[in-house]
Design a protein that fits this description.
By secondary structure, the chain is of the alpha+beta class. It has one domain: Fumarylacetoacetate hydrolase, domain 2. It is 15% helix and 32% strand. The strands form three sheets. Strands 1, 2, 3, 5, 6, 8, 9 and 12 form an eight-stranded mixed sheet that branches. A four-stranded antiparallel sheet has the order 11-10-14-15, with no helix packed on it. Strand 14 and strand 15 form a beta hairpin.
C-alpha cells in the first residue's frame, strides 16, 4: 500500500495521494543564502511524484551515498478541490489541511546539475524526498498569512520562518500554480523554505513545530 494522508489525530484522509508541487526561492533571506535571484512575476515551480512521500512520524530515511542531503523545512498545504486557473478566493477554499514538510535536497548533485545547465529534478524528486507530517485541519490553524514554523537539529535552532514573509503568499501561489498545473484533490503544495537550510546525517535528532498546533520529533535513520 502506498502513502496515505492522515489528520493529526491519526484518522485517514479519504483523498487519493497525488503529486507534490513545490515553490522554490519563496523567502527573501533564503534567496540570499543560495546566492540566487528572486522571482519577480512568477514563482519558481517544480514537481515531486507521489513516491517522494515519507512520514515524518517515522525515522527519517535519507540517501547515504549521493553526497550532502539538506533539510528545507516548509509549510505544506493539502488540496481538497480541483483548482485550474483559479482566483484567490477559490484557492483559499480548496485548502483543507496544513502540515510540516521537509523538502530533502541532494545539494551536491543539485549544484552539479545547475552548473551543467541540466534539469535538477533528480536532486529534488527522488524517492523519499518529501517527508511530511500529519495534517492539521485548516480551521484549527492560524490564518494562511500568519503561520510560523521552526526546525532544530540536535537541539540547535536551524530554521524559523513565517508565511507573512513569503514572496508569493499561499493563495497567490496556488493561483500561479493552477495556471500551469491543475491541482487535484489529494495534491500537496510545498510553499518554500526560510533561511537556514543545511545538511543532515545519520543519528541527527530533529524537532519541528507548526505554530502552536503541531510539534513533532524524529531522528535520521
Amino acid at each position: 500500500m502506498g502513502f496515505q494522508h492522515q489528520w493529526q489525530d491519526g484518522q485517514v484522509i479519504e483523498l487519493q495521494t497525488g503529486k507534490i508541487v513545490c515553490a522554490g526561492l519563496n523567502y527573501a533571506l533564503h534567496v540570499q543564502e543560495m546566492n540566487s535571484t528572486p522571482a519577480e512575476d512568477e514563482p519558481v515551480l517544480f514537481i515531486k511524484p507521489g513516491t517522494a512521500l515519507q512520514s515524518l512520524h517515522q525515522p527519517l530515511n535519507i540517501p547515504q551515498t549521493r553526497g550532502a542531503v539538506h533539510h528545507e523545512l516548509e509549510i505544506a498545504v493539502l488540496i481538497s478541490r480541483k483548482l485550474q486557473d483559479c482566483d484567490e478566493s477559490e484557492a483559499r477554499g480548496a485548502v483543507s489541511g496544513i502540515a510540516l514538510a521537509l523538502d530533502l535536497t541532494l545539494r551536491d548533485l543539485q549544484s552539479t546539475l545547475k552548473k551543467t545547465g541540466r534539469p535538477w529534478e533528480k536532486s529534488k524528486a527522488f524517492d523519499g524526498s518529501c517527508a511530511i507530517s500529519h495534517f492539521v485541519p485548516v480551521s484549527q490553524c492560524p490564518p494562511l498569512n500568519r503561520i510560523d514554523i521552526g526546525l532544530a537539529v540536535n537541539e540547535q535552532a536551524r530554521q524559523t520562518g513565517n508565511s507573512s514573509d513569503m514572496l508569493f503568499p499561499i493563495p497567490r501561489l496556488l493561483c500561479e500554480i493552477s495556471r500551469y498545473f491543475t491541482l487535484e484533490p489529494g495534491d500537496i503544495v510545498l510553499t518554500g523554505t526560510p533561511q537556514g537550510v543545511g545538511p543532515l546525517v545519520s543519528g541527527d535528532r530533529l524537532s519541528m513545530r507548526l505554530a502552536n498546533v503541531l510539534s513533532l520529533e524524529t531522528t535520521v535513520a
